[in-house]
Amino acid sequence: MSGFNKVVGSYEEALAGLEDGMTIMVGGFGLCGIPEGLIEQVKDMGTSGLTCISNNAGIDGFALGKWLEGRQIKTMIGSYVGENALFEKLFISGEMEVILTPQGTLAEKIRAGGAGIPAFYTATGYGTDVAKGKDTREFNGRNYVLEESLTADYALVKAWKADTMGNLVYRMTTQNFNPMMATAGRITVAEVEEIVEPGELDPEHIHTPGIYVQRLIKGTFEKRIEQRTVRSA
Fold first, then answer.
1. H/E element holding 100?
2. In what order do the strands lie in the sheet with 142-148?
């Protein structure tokens, strides 16, 4: 990796500098659009004490479920956790702190962090446990909760295609949390299916400009389906 070329040759290089106790954002929604190889590399590194920001925690034995198996996550900030039995066990036992956040609020906290906005008011959660300990204000007769933005030491995202300068294109629903997380990491690492030369991507189709991406790696993906439902013959 040199100059404007963001491509790295190994997962070790992609995650160089990652240390215990850091905060990591991980893109994806369920198992859709997750950076599978980067998640596996963090598992293999054994990095622990992590604060993980992600919509959910994968499933047992796959995706972020592997970090749970290794007891690598100290604090989980997410929105939906219903597909992982180990997650429930770690939370109930007190081994892992869980900060549940309404999904739209989580998305906006990340977007705001990437935009340099320290906090914002939202009506979501007012009068519930979500608002406990937070500043509240009334605007035009409606009550709002102050939510602080989120940033991370590393943002791990998955895209469909990139050029060597780190410009990213996502495919369909894999956009989910990936574009906003790409802007909110001090170091953003993108794992992609295809890398092309500069100029090969239509500028109007680029979702994340390369200025937000520090490292880029071509991966291979299982693309496991979270819950497969089929109709009987």
1. strand 97-100
2. 119-122, 142-148, 136-139
pTM over 0.85: yes
**What is d(CA 220, CA 35) in angstroms, rounded to the nearest whole number?**
10
Within 13 Å and on the Cβ side, how many CA atoms surround 33?
24
| Cα–Cα distance, 82 to 104 (Å, whole number) | 17
Q: What does the pLDDT read at residue 119?
A: 98
Q: Quickly name the fold that domain 20-100+151-218 has.
A: Glutaconate Coenzyme A-transferase (3.40.1080)
- What proportions of the chain, in percent to the nearest 5, are helix, strand and coil? 25, 30, 45
How far apart, in whole angstroms, are the C-alpha atoms of residue 157 and residue 16?
16
- pLDDT tens column, 43-86: 999 999 999 999 999 888 899 999 999 999 999 999 988 788 99
**Which residue type sits at 59?**
I
Instruction: Please check whether residue 105 is in contact with residue 126, taking contact to mean a CB–CB distance below 8 angstroms.
Output: no
**Where along the chain do its domains lie?**
20-100+151-218
Q: Are 203 and 175 in contact (CB under 8 A)?
A: no
C-alpha 151/C-alpha 207 separation (Å) is 19
Which residue has tokens 């994806």?
A: 28
Cα 15 vs. chain centroid, distance in angstroms?
15
